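Hi R.,

Here's the chain you asked about this morning:
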Amino acid sequence: MAVSSEEFRSALARFASGVSVVTTRDAGGKLHGITVSAFCSVSLSPPLVLICIENAAGSHYAFNESGVFAVNILTEDQAELSEHFALIHEEKFAGIDFSFGRLGVPLLSGCLATLECRIRNTADGGDHTIFIGEVESAAVAENRPLVYFRGEYRKLK
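And here is the predicted structure, written out as tokens:
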């Protein structure tokens, strides 16, 4: 028998992780961004990462359409940014400081790291789609990460 959704969610909440916002733009140029809990490295050579986007998410189609995305890894001072992109807004980028990367995707300002990726593969992941992206550009900064653990944002000491 499979584990219940509640048990599974409770177990996963015990895994501390960094916080990331993934961004893209659709074919019409509209910008999209979502706070994600599923992001990780896949390979160093070639440099691959994966993100998981809920199939029911309003921005899901944009990742398929564009074929590119950015991963914006947040600093400890960017919890409000995480909350902002976790909610549904018509204009998510209004009032948000960002620039466009080489691939034409929005890069959030002040992040710990940004990765610009070209989608190489997708896979069915139940109620999510797994997007595997090849990293074409990366930028890093020296700062402390925002961490999420047991339903709360945390800071490293």
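One quick note: The chain has a mean pLDDT of 95.

Cheers,
M.
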